Amino acid sequence: MYFTCPICNKPLYNTNRNHSVACENGHSFDYAKEGYLYLLPPNKKHSKAPGDDRAMVAARRRFLSAGHYRIFSDALNKLACGLLQSQSPVVIDAGCGEGAYTERLTAALRAAGKAPQTFGCDISKAAVRLAAKAAPDISFAVASSFSLPLPERCADLLTDVFAPVVPEEFRRVVKPGGYFLLAVPSARHLFALKEILYDAPYENAEKDTAYPGFRFVRRVPVRGSLHLTGQAVQDLFAMTPYSWKTPKAGRDNLQHVSELTTEIGFDFLVYERDAT
């Protein structure tokens, strides 16, 4: 058991009942029927149901399962396999969502002859439930990236795909010499979708951000185009933050769209944890 107690940070152990875990201070947490742990204390929730809701999670699962972002998943997997030298690396997916990238990354590492220990954490219970159900051989927990329930210096690699970046916490859990792999949108990612939603669509800012405790190694751009029809158009919108902040006029515009062709692009930023 790699997970630690979210209350006192002590190691968690499987109990004799095998359907719960506990720490030496007596804090106990039950496994959900899907196999994940709920390690998000009430004082760290900030809302009744934080994170992506069921509709958003279901849309993302349909979209990613259809392979629309496969080029990004493949690029992530290739990068990770090239970075990791250990035969049994510890991998953390911080903000794992419904687990599509986590699952494919784990499979790619296994195909490369490695035996990864993979841990996925997300603040959304709906997302983690779906992730754990789809990949029962991966350890998932409902938890905040601002307080990961994992030991210090345990990870060979931490991945973050469009999730909050918490440099201090990421540095705490990544081993010296380990890697932090961050995915960010390119300047014109989904620009055609923005043209439908907004009167004045904007390009995303591109910059190499420095994070304390990490050395920037390189930027790996991945570009493509996407042609969507029918439900996939609405799923793309529903799975993005645009679904939260788009004005009614933009939403109405999209309702009449049954076909969309757009540029897509991720940049993978590679950081190495310092030796101190």
Question: What this model shows, in words?
Answer:
Helices cover 30% and strands 27% of the residues. It has 276 residues and is an alpha/beta fold. It has two domains: 1-31, no CATH class; 42-273, Rossmann fold (3-Layer(aba) Sandwich), CATH 3.40.50. Strand 5, helix 3 (100-111) and strand 6 form a beta-alpha-beta unit. The protein is globular and about 55 Å long. The two termini are 26 Å apart. One of its GO terms (biological process) is methylation. InterPro entries: Methyltransf_25, Methyltransf_Superfamily, RlmA_N, rRNA_m1G-MeTrfase_A_prd, SAM-dependent_MTases_sf. This is Methyltransferase domain-containing protein.
The largest beta-sheet arranges its strands as 4-7-6-5-8-9-11-10
pLDDT below 50 for ≥5 consecutive residues: which ranges? none
Fraction in beta strands: 25-35%
Shape: globular
* The CATH C-level class name of the largest domain: Alpha Beta
Kindly state the percentage of residues in helix.
25-40%
Order of helices and strands: EEEEHHEHEHEEHEHEHHHE
Query: What number is the mean pLDDT?
Result: 95
Layout of helices and strands, plus pairs?
Layout: E1 13-14, E2 20-22, E3 28-30, E4 37-38, H1 54-65, H2 70-83, E5 90-94, H3 100-111, E6 117-122, H4 125-134, E7 139-142, E8 155-161, H5 167-173, E9 174-185, H6 191-197, E10 214-229, H7 231-238, H8 242-245, H9 248-255, E11 259-273
Parallel strand pairs: 4-7, 5-6, 5-8, 6-7, 8-9
Antiparallel strand pairs: 1-2, 2-3, 9-11, 10-11
Helix pairs in contact: 1-7, 2-3
